[in-house]
Design a protein that fits this description.
Blueprint: H1 2-39, E1 59-71, E2 79-91, E3 95-98, E4 101-109, E5 112-121, E6 141-152, E7 155-165, E8 171-182, E9 187-198, H2 200-207, H3 211-217, E10 227-240, E11 245-256, H4 258-261, E12 270-281
Antiparallel strand pairs: 1-2, 1-12, 2-3, 3-4, 4-5, 5-6, 6-7, 7-8, 8-9, 9-10, 10-11, 11-12
Organism: Rhizobium deserti
Keywords: Cell outer membrane, Membrane, Signal
Family: Belongs to the MipA/OmpV family.
Length: about 280
């Protein structure tokens, strides 16, 4: 009897010891779990991974081709058709590359913008027209310049200044206004007007006739001086054929003025032109 009680007491003591040990282990486990939960919170649900929206991009690219119908040279009364490749690339609101060159906008503030430009002056060959025979060629040249503008809704007012490197080595300034606005979801209409002012080098190169040129060409000598040389008026239409395909047409009229209009090189003061191209927008 005493042996049985002794066994029972030993079993009870062992059971109590095991219970205490298990309770301590469980307590430590729960404490560790609670501590771990406090140290590493569950990350928030990433809803964007399940959205079907495409990420917005800050660039665009238009590639296309078309043609122009314009005077053979500035002042000609004869016209020619020329093919033109078209590449227009924009990145953010500070970089634009188009057929006229590269524009980098360094400053924008409340509608005002200031940009640097790199472009080109196409020059002129004496084979471009009968009246140019004997005047010599004007070489193709690069231009560097600046543009200041102010944007108010669909209207942009701007002024540019460009210096030709080599070629005619001329300085040209432009002051103008351009309006572009969507008429429908697919159609955008635009209109513009600008005045072009050129220095002595440009006027002499394109509209002057010196003694040697007069002897070779038979044209009278003529000195063209700096001033307002041309006023341009234009209208354009861009139509989105689809989400990516578009067609753009433009018609313009240049009016030669001052010493440019009076030059013996000029056959016609009114210089109309048209262009059209089809492009794909990526």
């Amino acid at each position: 009897m005493s042996f049985t009680r002794s066994i029972d007491r030993r079993l009870l003591a062992s059971a109590l010891c095991i219970t205490v040990m298990l309770a301590g282990t469980a307590s430590n486990t729960f404490a560790a779990d609670a501590s771990l939960a406090e140290q590493t919170p569950e990350p928030p649900f990433d809803q964007e991974r399940f959205d079907n929206k495409k990420p917005e991009r800050n660039w665009s690219l238009i590639v296309g081709a078309g043609g122009t119908y314009e005077p053979e040279y500035e002042g000609s009364d004869k016209f020619e058709i020329s093919p033109i490749p078209v590449v227009v690339f924009t990145y953010g609101d500070w970089l634009e590359i188009d057929p006229t060159g590269v524009t980098v906008t360094a400053l924008r503030h409340e509608g005002f913008a200031l940009a640097a430009r790199v472009g080109y002056e196409s020059g002129r060959d004496e084979d471009d027209g009968d009246r140019l025979r004997g005047l010599g060629d004007i070489d193709f040249a690069a231009t560097v310049g600046a543009k200041a503008s102010y944007q108010w809704q669909a209207l942009e007012l701007y002024a540019t200044l460009d210096q030709t490197i080599d070629g005619s080595e001329s300085l040209i300034g432009t002051v103008g206004a351009e309006f572009q606005a969507p008429v429908t979801e697919r159609l955008i209409l635009g209109a513009g007007v600008e005045a072009v002012i050129a220095d002595d080098n440009h006027m002499e190169a394109y509209f002057g006739v010196n003694a040697a040129q007069s002897a070779r060409s038979g044209l009278p000598q003529y000195k063209a001086e700096a001033g307002l040389k041309r006023v341009n008026i234009s209208a354009s239409a861009t139509y989105m054929l689809s989400e990516n395909w578009l067609v753009r047409g433009e018609a313009g009229l240049g009016i030669l003025t001052g010493d440019a209009a009076d030059s013996p090189i000029v056959e016609e003061k009114l210089q109309p032109s048209t262009s059209v191209f089809v492009g794909y927008k990526f």
